[in-house]
Design a protein that fits this description.
Largest interface: A-B, 17 and 21 residues
Number of helices of chain A: 3
Helix content of chain A: over 70%
Helix content of chain B: 55-70%
Shape of chain A: elongated
Low-confidence stretches of chain A: none
Structural class of chain A: mainly alpha
Strand content of chain A: under 5%
Number of strands of chain A: 0
Number of helices of chain B: 7
Largest sheet of chain B: none
Mean pLDDT of chain A: 86
Oligomer: heterodimer
Number of strands of chain B: 0
């Protein structure tokens, strides 16, 4: 294996690890918001690392260029999607679960 | 036709009262919470949408020579409409892109595919024989395959957008689609 392939393998393995973390968080955390917290961040990083690893092993080609574009779009859209889901949950009055978990009464559900 | 374009809220209420929930997927428009704009989502979509559409067309056109193709590119192009729907509300976007336009897009894609397909009979001897196009112009087979990919992409983009509108505005779009059929008998 060449050094580039080692780097690609490390990136893909790192991506898989963060994907696993996101899955565990999604299954084990109690409510919408904490699951979103686990899934959005780890899953973004996981897929971005995996795509970066694939792009690394392909070198400078049309395919790797498409992957770089995908990577940029994922970095922008994934947090926005998480924001949209959390916002929709707040607008629908989805309650958080846990000790001391409550909404601020003076904070409106539909703003932010 | 254009008289029916902006359906009033009162109109909706009357019809939905007449036909209560009968196993449909979405809630009627007045039961849904009012749509509230979000600066973050709108800004992201404004910045990203043109690039995503370009990427979709790029993937569509480069489907023959590298990874990608009509199906993938069509889905990415349709994602643009889905994002606009999430950011600016599905109903206003659906009002701009009416069912007739989407059907036109799908039919144009199908027509493109059939044109290239049956053109094979004219220049060669079988359906979709793209290698025969080489006799007509340089790189004939490559460009005819690209044309097929674009046709597939148009069909996929149109169908995905239509399905998204059907899910998002559910009741309204379904009612609009059934109306002309009932009038025709």
């Amino acid at each position: 294996m060449t050094p580039v392939e080692y780097l690609a393998a490390a990136l893909v393995i790192g991506g898989t690890f963060f994907g696993l973390v996101a899955t565990v968080g999604l299954l084990r955390l109690p409510d919408l918001y904490s699951r979103l917290h686990a899934a959005s961040k780890s899953d973004t990083l996981g897929s971005v690392l995996a795509i970066a690893g694939t792009a690394t092993v392909l070198g400078v080609t049309t395919e790797s260029m498409k992957m770089v574009f995908l990577l940029l779009f994922l970095f922008l859209t994934s947090p926005t999607a998480a924001h949209a889901i959390a916002r929709a949950g707040r607008a629908q009055d989805v309650e958080p679960v846990g000790e001391n978990a409550a909404w601020d009464e003076d904070e409106g559900g539909e703003t932010q | 036709m254009s008289d029916r374009d902006p359906p009033s809220a009162a109109d909706h209420t009357d019809r939905d009262d007449a036909a209560p929930t009968d196993g449909r997927l979405t809630r009627p428009a007045e039961d849904r919470p009012p749509y509230v704009e979000s600066t973050i989502i709108m800004t992201t979509v404004r910045v990203i949408a043109p690039f995503v559409l370009t990427l979709g067309v790029f993937v569509m056109f480069h489907g023959a020579s590298s990874a990608g193709g009509g199906f993938q590119g069509g889905v990415i192009a349709a994602t643009t409409v889905v994002m606009l729907g999430f950011a600016f509300g599905i109903e206003p976007i659906a009002a701009h892109l009416r069912n007739e336009h989407l059907a036109g897009l799908v039919l144009a894609g199908l027509g493109t595919f059939l044109l290239v397909g049956f053109g094979g009979y004219l220049v060669g001897d079988t359906f979709l024989q793209v290698s025969a196009y080489e006799t007509l112009f340089h790189h004939g087979s490559k460009y005819s395959i690209e044309l097929v990919e674009v046709g597939i992409g148009m069909v996929v983009a149109g169908v995905i957008t239509g399905l998204f509108f059907l899910l998002g505005t559910g009741v309204d779009t379904a009612r609009e689609a059934t109306e002309p059929g009932e009038e025709d008998g």
